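Hey, quick one: can you model this chain's 3D structure?
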Amino acid sequence: MTTLWQDVRYSLRTLTKSLGFATVAVLSLALAIGANTAIFSALNAVLLRSLPVRRPQELRLINWVGRNPQYGGGYTGPGTISAPGGLEMGTSFPYPIYRDFVDRGSGFADVFAFSPKSTTAVMRGTASVAVAMLVSGNFFAGYGVNPFLGRTITPEDDRPGSLPVVVITYRWWREHCGLDPSVIGQSLTLNQAAYTVVGVLPRSYVGPMMGDSSDIYAPMSAQAHLEPSRPLDSRDRWWVQVMGRLAPGASESQAQASLAVLFRQALSESSSKMDEAAIVLEDGSRGQLLLRRQMAKPYITLTAAVALVLLVACANLAGLLLARGAGRRHEMAVRAALGSGRWRLIRQSLIESLVLSLAGAGLGLVMATWFKQILAGFLAMLPEGFRFDLRTDSNVLAFTLGVCVLTALVFGLLPAIHASRVDPSAGLKNRAAMGAPRLRLGRVLVAVQIGLSVVLVAGAGLMIRTFANLADVSPGFDPANVLLFRVKPADAGYTDQQYMDVYDRIRTAIAAIPGVRGVTFSSFALVSNSSWSEDIELPGRANEPARRQHVAQLGVGEDFFQTMSIPLLLGRNFSDADTATSSPVVIVNETLARRFFPEEDPLGQTFLMLDGTDRTVQVVGVCRDAKYNQIRADATPVVYLSQRQRAQRSVCFEVRSVLPPLALVPAIRKAVASLDSNLPISHVRTQEQQLDLSLAADRLFASLGGGFALLAVLLSCVGLYGLMAYNVARRTNEIGLRMALGATRRSVIVPVLREAAILALLGLAVGVPVALVLVRFVSSQLYDVAPTDPATFIGSGVLLVLVAVLAAWVPACRAARVDPMIALRCE
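Sure thing. Here's the predicted structure for all 827 residues.
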């Protein structure tokens, strides 16, 4: 241990004497390790962090798998995903099946259910939109959470006739109650029903759903008015998600088999049909995983990119250490002559590398804080409700320490072995007699850096071109000066027959605000990643199987096309004469008209809406194609329905103004509140912000990918500069002699630049084929650019060659300024 400490002190003393080298090494490592730590923090928050609950390792998510499930038209829970063997996997169950699991299942200490629901909450006279989580009475006991204030929901609260109670999250308590401890016992109104606040959850609480979006927790017994469309006694409404806590000593496989038997029995007693039905238990220590896994994919890609940056940094530092070790050959030879064995020399070099790596990791944690602030800006553009904690926890610290040690070995081992290969007898010679090595391995490392850099530069180029292409796509409507917000009268006590009256009154009130040019509303905002689709049945065709088609739909107000600047190509617009009692009419986009009525006039055509009403509708207009739910998606057949003929319980208002749209928000809030103070507006943003939000992931890839590529190129420049500077210093005497014999500045500079260009070309020769293979893994994220786009790869190669030449320019000029007399005198 004493010897080890001596090596550490010697390393610190040696590095202190080479502050320039140590500074470059530590900064290079800090940038690379900081970037890796920041991206890992995001991956950790999305996929790896355990829930802050009691013994999270005992939690299990209860999912189902099956083939061709039929829900009897009642499935309203989260979507399914593909499972191996052509099966589907889902997370939601009918409530009676959950009760079967509780009453007759085995192997679990607790089985509890939960389901999120958007609702209108009124607290202390202020209405807002909140996410309420309906939970079974044993949810908090089974989940393993204690309250911060008051108590949690109990099984007694979840019985019919019990006093309506709720538990609020710490975040909601802070934002709506100002952390007032007297909130316990106060009244909170949800969808016009009064509840009593009985508890506040801890600040560190994280719910089982991804992103911790819940604000308020209510018992399942509140379903009758919070979620009336999903009766607790229905076996055909799939809406509750289920988790369980394994009993001590229980067999997971036996518990799974027990639930599978109950699940298949329940299906046989309902109208829902499913082949090969089974139950799957998944690790629940990190919460609901299906959406987390989907969100983890881009972060895994970014993790691979920053890993390449770290490899570039390692190759860079290995080259710098080789050059530094070449300058210390005399010192190593003397130490070997004095009795230091080869392992002792290797250990000393590795300890120096570890000291550099630890310093780089420490500074990298500081830089990671800055990187995470940038990353948080992109995460903030995720859909509302998704919140991720990027704090540095034990997982992040362990990752950083592991990267630190691995990095020290990667960049320090080869130079350490190389430095230990000295002849002890050389210590008796002078430095000049020893000469300076040519560092062939250093040239290889520089070529490796450039090869890795071209992978990052080409990938970043493709992502940047993708983002540029998407930004140039015309949405088919004018997004400028349009404000969006949602209202949901269903949660404010209004009935189906009253929805249209509410929308008309809101539209009239907003239209009277100065600066407003147009007001309309629709089922949801365009390009908001929301969609609504149903089957339609076309009139008889020669090709009968083509009669039934699946099309996108959007319910709109009569001024929708005018307000959004979507031109009508044929026919008429909707009018206030199109009511629930008049003949059903629709407007279709040009893609639907062209695809389904290619040789006919689409106006006057009819088809059957297979949406449960089986209405026959008539086409009265054709509009220009507009982007529906995504900028990326090609034009798809869209049917526009009149909200006046079938008003929906929640709509998005679009307000076009001559003023900056956000300047209208206070006036709009006041106008809506004057109509009904219990009818809040939510999801307020401009249409341009909505477009930006739809491109958030592409902007993330383009920005971070470009940043990582720039960092890799910078590190490669440092490595190439270090190698060229060493070579110039090594050949000072030779250059001086050549200049004394009449060599010109050009004849001295050109060979140095030529060597740099050759190294860059060698790196490209290896890196370009690797990049061509790797970019295919991200081809699904590209838009209007091929994974093998020649312009991107040629541009990346030219850029790296130019950068390599520029990095060698300073050492080349320094070589041309060598004074022949001084060089010959040293010789």
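One thing worth noting: The first strand starts at residue 59 and ends at 70.
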